[in-house]
DNA sequence: GTTATTTGACCCGC
DNA sequence: GCGGGTCAAATAAC
C-alpha cells in the first residue's frame, strides 16, 4: 500500500462507517457459507460408515471418528470466528488483533457426571437487558498481540457506541437448604472460573466464569455468579452471550421437579428454552406440504449449539433444517416449496444451529428471528414438537 | 505430563 | 482515583 494515506479527515468517518457495513456484510456472508458447509459436511457420512468400496486401508474406526470430529470442530471454529468477528464489529470500533493460534486438536472432556445431586434448584427470574460488554475481545490471552499496531482503531472518532447485541440475562437460582452445593451450579455447560471479585456493597464475592471451550472453539459465553446478600441460598447468575460451542448437557438426573412454566420473556429466553427442551430428549416432528411427516428422532443427550435454518415465510431459496452428527445421516428438509427431501437419522441428533435464519446472499434481508410461534404451551409438556412447514413455526 | 482454580495485578471506563 | 472485569502466574487438582 504505497499510496498516500490521508490524515484524519473528517470525511473518513463516514467512509469508515461504510466500510464497516461492507465488512459486516462480508462477514455475514462468510458465516452463512460456513453454516452451509457445516450442513453439507453433516451429510457426508464419516469414513467409517462409508461403504468400503476398495479400501485397502485398515481404516480403524477410531481414526474415522476422529476425522469426523476434527472436521466438525474445524467448521465450528470457522463459524465461531465469524460470529465473534461480527459481535466485535457490533460493539466498539476498537478491537484487538486477530489471534490465530494453532492449537492441537485437544480433546475436550467435560466432567458431566459430577455426581451433583441437584436437589432443589429453582430457576426463578429471567431478565433481559442490553449490555455494554467491555470485553468482547477474543479469547487468546494477549499472547502474540504485542507487536503490530492495534492503535488503528484507537482513534475512535466516530465513537458510535453501537449497542451491544450480545445477549445478557440473569437467573436467580435457589439451592435447597442443607446442600453443600455452591456457586458452580450445574446448568449443563462446563465453565471455567477466571476470576473473582469483591463487589462493593456485596456480602459475597462475585465469580466470573467462561466457557471452557473458549480457546478451543472460540465460544465467548460467560457467566457471573453472585450470591445474594441476604439469602445465602440464592445465587444470581448472569449469563453473557450464547454458546457457540458444542457441549453435551448432563443427563438430567432424577426428579426434575415440575418444571416451571417458564415465562416466555424474550427471544433469547425462548431460545434457551428450546435448547433445553431439545436437550431433554423430545421428539420433533416436521410436517410437509403434502401432509407427510418426518420425524426428528429423539435427541438423546447430545446437542450442539448453533442455529436452526428456517426460512422466512416467503423464502425463495431453499432453507433447511439440519440436525447433524453424530447421526450417520440426517434429516434434510427443504422448506422452500415444501418439497421435502429427508434422509434417515439414526440415534443421536445434534442441532447445528438455532435462533436465526440467515439468507444466503449477503445483500438479502437481515436475519429473521426464528419463528417460534406460540410454543409456550409446549414448555409444560415438552415431548413433541411439530413444525408446520406452511405456517413456518412449531405448533 | 495435563488442565482447573486461586489471587493479586492490570486494564479500562467512568 | 475507583470499581468492575479480565489476565496470568502460581498453585492446586488430576
Automatic annotation (TrEMBL):
Major site of localization recorded for this protein? nucleus
Q: Report keywords, A-Z.
A: DNA-binding, Nucleus, Transcription, Transcription regulation
Q: Where is the composition biased (Pro residues)?
A: 248-261
The name under which this protein is listed is WRKY domain-containing protein
UniProt keyword Transcription, yes or no: yes
Its Gene Ontology molecular function terms?
Answer: DNA-binding transcription factor activity; transcription cis-regulatory region binding
- Specify residue ranges for compositional bias: Low complexity: 129-143
In the record, biological process GO terms are:
leaf senescence; response to hydrogen peroxide; response to ozone; response to salicylic acid
Tell me the PANTHER family matching this sequence. Answer: WRKY TRANSCRIPTION FACTOR 30-RELATED, WRKY TRANSCRIPTION FACTOR 30-RELATED-RELATED
Amino acid at each position: 500500500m504505497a499510496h498516500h494515506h490521508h490524515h484524519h479527515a473528517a470525511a473518513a468517518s463516514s467512509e469508515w462507517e461504510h466500510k464497516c457495513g461492507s465488512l459486516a456484510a462480508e462477514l455475514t456472508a462468510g458465516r452463512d457459507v460456513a453454516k452451509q458447509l457445516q450442513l453439507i459436511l453433516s451429510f457426508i457420512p464419516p469414513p467409517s460408515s462409508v461403504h468400503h468400496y476398495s479400501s485397502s486401508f485398515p481404516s480403524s474406526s477410531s481414526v474415522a471418528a476422529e476425522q469426523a470430529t476434527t472436521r466438525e470442530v474445524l467448521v465450528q471454529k470457522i463459524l465461531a470466528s465469524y460470529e465473534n468477528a461480527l459481535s466485535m464489529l457490533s460493539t466498539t470500533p476498537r478491537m484487538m488483533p486477530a489471534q490465530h493460534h494453532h492449537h492441537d486438536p485437544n480433546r475436550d472432556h467435560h466432567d458431566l457426571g459430577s455426581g451433583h445431586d441437584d436437589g432443589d434448584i429453582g430457576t426463578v427470574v429471567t431478565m433481559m437487558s442490553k449490555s455494554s460488554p467491555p470485553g468482547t475481545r477474543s479469547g487468546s490471552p494477549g499472547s502474540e498481540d504485542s507487536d503490530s499496531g492495534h492503535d488503528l482503531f484507537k482513534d475512535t472518532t466516530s465513537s458510535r457506541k453501537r449497542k451491544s447485541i450480545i445477549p445478557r440475562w440473569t437467573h436467580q437460582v435457589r439451592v435447597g437448604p442443607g446442600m453443600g452445593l455452591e456457586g458452580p451450579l450445574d446448568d449443563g455447560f462446563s465453565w471455567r472460573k477466571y476470576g473473582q471479585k469483591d463487589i462493593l456493597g456485596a456480602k459475597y464475592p462475585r465469580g466470573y466464569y467462561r466457557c471452557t471451550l473458549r480457546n478451543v472453539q472460540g465460544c465467548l459465553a460467560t457467566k457471573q455468579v453472585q450470591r445474594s446478600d441476604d439469602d445465602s441460598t440464592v445465587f444470581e447468575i448472569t449469563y453473557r452471550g450464547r454458546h457457540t460451542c458444542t457441549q453435551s448437557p448432563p443427563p438430567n438426573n432424577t426428579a426434575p421437579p415440575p418444571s416451571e412454566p417458564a415465562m416466555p420473556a424474550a427471544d433469547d429466553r425462548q431460545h434457551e428454552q428450546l435448547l433445553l427442551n431439545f436437550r431433554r430428549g423430545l421428539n420433533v416432528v416436521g410436517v410437509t406440504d403434502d401432509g407427510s411427516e418426518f420425524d426428528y428422532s429423539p435427541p438423546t443427550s447430545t446437542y450442539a449449539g448453533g442455529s436452526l435454518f428456517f426460512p422466512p415465510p416467503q423464502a425463495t431459496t431453499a432453507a433447511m433444517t439440519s440436525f447433524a452428527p453424530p447421526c450417520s445421516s440426517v434429516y434434510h428438509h427443504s422448506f422452500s416449496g415444501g418439497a421435502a427431501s429427508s434422509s434417515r437419522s439414526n440415534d443421536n441428533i445434534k442441532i447445528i444451529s438455532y435462533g436465526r435464519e440467515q439468507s444466503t446472499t449477503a445483500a438479502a434481508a437481515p436475519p429473521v428471528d426464528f419463528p417460534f410461534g406460540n410454543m409456550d404451551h409446549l414448555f409444560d409438556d415438552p415431548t413433541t414438537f411439530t413444525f408446520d412447514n406452511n405456517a413456518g413455526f412449531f405448533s
